[in-house]
Structures are given as C-alpha cells and as structure tokens.
Model the fold of this input.
Amino acid sequence: MDKIVFITGASSGIGAGCARKFASQGASLILNARNEEKLSALKEELEQQYGARVCLLPFDVRDRKTAAEALASLPDEWKAIDILINNAGLVIGVDKEHEGNLDEWDIVIDTNIKSLLAMTRLVVPGMVARGRGHIINIGSIAGDAAYAGGSVYCATKAAVKALSDGLRIDLVDTPLRVTNIKPGLVETNFSVVRFRGDKDKADNVYKGIRPLTGDDIAETVYFAASVPEYMQIAEMLVMPTYQATGTIVSRN
Ligand SMILES: NC(=O)C1=CN([C@@H]2O[C@H](COP(=O)(O)OP(=O)(O)OC[C@H]3O[C@@H](n4cnc5c(N)ncnc54)[C@H](OP(=O)(O)O)[C@@H]3O)[C@@H](O)[C@H]2O)C=CC1
Ligand SMILES: CC(=O)[C@H](N)C(=O)O
Done:
C-alpha cells in the first residue's frame, strides 16, 4: 500500500496495532500520541521489522494550536495524507451521570469528540483539494446504546457515529470515504485507564471471555482501507464471538 497514513493514539492498543498492520503492507506512517518514548520504540520496531517510513508527531490531540502547528510543520513529502485514523480516545471511571467528576468528563469529551473533529478539520480540506482520502474513525459498540457506568463514554461514541455519518454526507460529491469502526471488547490499556491504573479491575473486564486484540481491530481497519475505491465501508461492528451487545457477554 503506497499511502501516507496518519494515526492518532498510536502509542498503544488499537492505534499501535494499526501502525503495525499498515507498516507491514508498505504504508508510510505519521504516528501521534502524547507518550514520545512509546512512539519512538514503535518507530524503531516498524523501521527494523518492515523497513517502514515513519514520522512521529507527538502532541496532545486536545491542544488545537499545537496540533495545527505540528501538521503545518510536516515536511512536504509527508503533507499529502491519504488515510486519517482518528483513534485517540479514552474514558476515566465508571461513575453515574449524576455523580461523576465534570473535570474528568471534560477530558473524555474533549479527547473523543472535539479532538476528532479538530483533526478532521485540519486534515480533510487537503484530501478534498487532492481529490483522494479516507477518514477512519474508531467509534465503539458503546455508541449504539448506553450502559451502566458508561453514560458519558457512550455519548461520545454516539457522537463519533453522528460525526462520521455527517462527514460522509458532506463529502458525498467527492471521491473521499468515511468509515466508522465500532469495536466491542478489545483488551488494550483502555480498561487500565478507565479504572485509574487498577490492573485487577481492568483484567476483570475480560474474565471468562476471549477478547479481541488491537491487532484484530487493525485487520478490520486495514480491510476497510483496502477495498476498491468505488466501495465505501460505512460502518463495521466487530466483537468477540461470545459478545452480543455492549453488555450481553457469555463468560465461562
Ligand atoms: N479497548 C476497547 O475495548 C475499545 C476501544 N475503543 C476505542 O479505541 C480507541 C483506542 O483505544 P484502545 O487502543 O483500546 O486504548 P489504549 O488506552 O490502549 O490506547 C489509547 C491511545 O489513545 C492515546 N491518547 C489518549 N489521549 C490522548 C490525547 N489527549 N492525545 C493524543 N493521544 C491520546 C493514547 O496515547 P498516550 O497516552 O500516549 O497519549 C493511546 O495511544 C479509543 O478511541 C477507544 O475509545 C472502542 C471500542 C472498544
Ligand atoms: C471500550 C469500549 O468501547 C467497549 N466496547 C466498552 O464500552 O466496553
């Protein structure tokens, strides 16, 4: 794949899985996250293992000014981004809507919704001008229905669906494509962040079920990106076999 792929939240989980998959297929990668150390280790791995071209763009996606400056600072050979994977996201806590911490929810809403919108606003005009591009948003099964302790997170992922659908409508008269990937249970660092570093609570989320991995989701993202140009995978809901909805899971 001779394309430039920009992945936000590439230092871990699904984003890192996407970086490995696209690198293995010959893509050039622009990788973003806040943790520069993890990004540098991944760059070294991708260069050594796949001979990939990798450009690091570490910044906090919530910081619009830095994001704009970072993208503007890209060398010319990196500017023509073909695929934007809006993946950076998180949740903190499992609090009830009337009891949670508004400052934590600001972080969740700013990261999962406003930053996705800001990255789209920064990258997509160039795609439109070049007449090619694909925006792949990482939504969630959580966006399909609210669940206990997930109110704000579920709302952000419902917003990712609406933003994906809206962008697809806005771009309907262009060759650009928009995809919303909606994973179910995927074992990454996500639950560790959700439970504020409590590894036992995080491990409990995946007890008695074989969860998906970041690499599994990366396969679906790559599939969506590699179908013929006249095809658009609008949405994919991908979950473990023993999961039926965001909350109905059979555990042994
Ligand atoms: N795991 C799951 O079960 C599911 C996850 N998802 C979604 O998948 C996406 C990836 O999550 P997942 O891989 O599971 O979790 P991880 O915690 O493993 O990865 C999250 C990534 O987002 C980055 N990130 C978080 N905040 C910021 C920020 N402000 N600026 C830049 N990067 C940021 C993190 O990097 P760093 O900390 O270095 O900045 C990290 O690379 C999220 O959008 C999540 O909502 C959807 C459905 C299921
Ligand atoms: C992290 C996710 O989006 C997951 N599907 C969940 O809500 O448990």
About this structure: The pocket of 2-amino-3-ketobutyric acid (ligand 2) is lined by residues 140-142, 150, 183-185, 190, 246 (CB under 6 Å). The radius of gyration is 17 Å.
